[in-house]
Design brief:
2 helices; signal; mainly beta; Neuraminidase; Tachylectin 2 domain-containing protein; disordered N terminus; 46% strand; single chain; elongated
Length: 426
């Protein structure tokens, strides 16, 4: 495969999580000086040392550099940042997305000094300034969550030089990229309804040490519903839909609003007759419902914008599901989990039109009074499962694929307590 010489060394560093020297890159990728150029006699000092740049919603981090020269010059002084360079497969250029850099000199306005221009061979021009024995440069780096996930360190070189190409100051700059908090659209939420009918939202953090933020009130009056089901994956940015069944058996559609503070638009009626079901779970942006005889019915989602027409006519997919005391499904996926009366947890891989034969996960799940699939809470990658025990403690299980289905691991972590105040968790 063809290779390209990349100025975007930082993207490669992010992608592999090690320093360029380990990867075979040069430490400074120095550019040949103009004819008659002399060695730098000045210094470059990075105030505060290595700049730590979080990858996420924290926003940009700024490093300040003092450049001093020991001889008198006139005219304009130019500057360049020499990034480590290396070769990688051309297809890896997609790793550059999510990085923004701007630069300023002597307190002036910030301007673009993009690090992802591969045509410059590892050289990033910085703003020019009138000649002086001392210059101050600010470099602002913003690494969004769409940057590569495996992060590392980077050492570059800053050079100050005259219009004739004489380098008058040179020194190293160092950057370390660490995981931050993913932007809201990349984080999910957990919803919980208390016994007074108030709906609360817990945003995920994307961090394993503390997967949930403090709860936020969504609104009251949700105790008119006997069932709440995620129809699509939710995000902390207000995306994601759900359906709710009232006491008369009418199913209502709540579309995501894209507003983090009020994540749902006003409800719209889907239709009646849903009281015949003892459980309603999500499946691939549609629904699966169990009737009182244990028959499982699938309602596929179609492309209609009319909520009354958004679900296709039901079709029978399985029987015998009344042996289970808890059912949960993936809103955006197609797998399901079911607990029998003996406390054994079973996984149902997606199949057509329903599920493939069940796979035993393990026993002991009757210690929980409810559990549900969630989207990824801790930034590991896959969906998670949260379960509430009879003392109101909430536990998180990471999931892995086993025999073609997404199942919780045997390791759990407590992520909350006092959740006995809720009568619905999704």
């Amino acid at each position: 495969m063809a290779h390209v010489r990349a100025a975007l060394a930082i993207a490669t560093v992010l992608a592999v999580g090690v320093t360029p020297a380990v990867l075979g890159g040069t430490a400074t990728a120095a550019v040949p000086l103009a004819a008659g150029a002399v060695s730098a006699s000045g210094t470059v000092v990075q105030e505060g040392g290595t700049l730590v740049v979080p990858s996420g919603e924290e926003g940009p981090a700024t490093t300040r550099i003092k450049a001093s020269q020991y001889r008198t010059t006139t005219g304009l002084l130019k500057a360049r940042l020499l990034l480590p360079t290396m070769e990688w497969d051309a297809g890896d250029e997609s790793q550059s997305f999510g990085l923004t850099t701007t630069c300023a000199v002597n307190g002036g306005a910030f301007q673009s000094c993009s690090w992802d221009d591969t045509e410059r061979g590892g050289v990033v021009p910085l703003p020019t300034a009138p000649a002086s024995t001392s210059l101050t440069y600010d470099i602002r780096v913003d690494a969004g969550s769409s940057a590569p996930l495996r992060l590392g360190g980077l050492t570059a070189t800053l050079e100050v030089f005259t219009e004739d190409g004489d380098v008058v100051a040179r020194g190293p700059l160092s950057f370390t990229f660490v995981p931050g908090t993913p932007e809201a659209y990349l984080r999910t939420t957990v919803l919980a309804r208390d016994k007074a009918g108030v709906l609360w939202q817990y945003e995920s953090t994307g961090h394993a040490d503390k997967p949930l933020k403090a709860r936020k009130r969504i609104g009251g009056g949700w105790n008119v519903y006997t069932s709440l089901t995620s129809l699509t994956s939710r995000t902390a940015g207000g995306q994601g839909d759900l359906v709710a069944r009232d006491r008369d058996g009418v199913l209502w559609y709540y579309e995501g609003s894209n507003n983090a503070d009020q994540p749902f638009k006003p409800r719209v009626r889907i239709g009646g007759g849903w009281n015949q079901y003892t459980a309603i779970i999500g499946r691939g942006m549609g629904l699966v419902a169990r009737d009182k005889s244990g028959v499982l019915w699938r309602y596929s989602r179609n492309g209609s914008d009319n909520p009354a027409l958004m679900l296709d006519a039901r079709r029978q997919v399985h029987t015998g599901f009344n042996i289970y005391t808890v059912l949960t499904g993936q809103a955006n996926g197609y797998d399901a989990l079911a607990r029998d009366r003996d406390g054994v947890l079973w996984a149902y891989p997606s199949g057509w039109p329903g599920y493939d034969p069940r796979v035993r996960v393990g026993g002991g799940w009757n210690t929980y009074d409810t559990f549900t699939y969630t989207s990824d809470l801790d930034g590991v990658r896959y969906d998670d499962v949260i379960a509430r025990d009879k003392e109101g403690r909430v536990w998180m299980y990471g999931c892995v694929y086993r025999n073609g289905t997404l199942v919780p691991t045997s390791t759990r972590k407590q992520i909350g307590w006092g959740w006995g105040i809720y009568d619905a968790i999704l």
